[in-house]
Write a structure and sequence with these properties.
Number of helices: 5
Order of helices and strands: HHHHH
Structural class: mainly alpha
Strand content: under 5%
């Protein structure tokens, strides 16, 4: 959000440089917990892993694509020299920084609300991650 709301090209340049400087050294640590949770769930709780992954594969796939887009945009923005490239990759970074947590939240909400029944592909792939009123 800070990157997205930093301001225009010139005005937000100092803030974006600070974001790159502060996040750069710990970039990979950001995803270590996610990999740890997936491997732990797969190893220790295989039936739960199968139920979650088969029922919620749509938001999980979109979250994975968001993680990839975010990492690529972060790296390419820093390496870009043209302003239009920095803006393009900055917008991709900002957008994927918003949608990735959203889809991870839909997965957490689907599991927490009990919409992921036990078994392989037993839940509805469309309505399981969606909140109902």
């Amino acid at each position: 959000m800070w990157d997205l709301l930093a301001g225009g090209t010139r005005r937000g340049q100092a803030q974006r440089h600070l974001i790159e400087h502060s996040i750069g050294p710990i970039w990979e640590a950001n995803h270590v917990w996610l990999i740890f949770v997936i491997v732990l769930l797969w190893s220790a709780f295989s039936p739960v892993f199968a139920a979650v992954m088969s029922t919620l594969y749509l938001p999980l796939t979109l979250a994975a694509l968001g993680i990839i887009a975010r990492g690529a945009a972060f790296a390419f923005r820093k390496a870009s020299t043209e302003v239009w490239q920095q803006r393009l990759f900055g917008a991709c970074f900002a957008l994927s920084s918003l949608i990735t947590p959203f889809f991870l939240g839909t997965v957490a909400g689907g599991v927490a609300s009990g919409r992921v029944p036990p078994g392989l592909a037993e839940g509805n792939i469309i309505t399981s991650p969606v909140l109902r009123g």
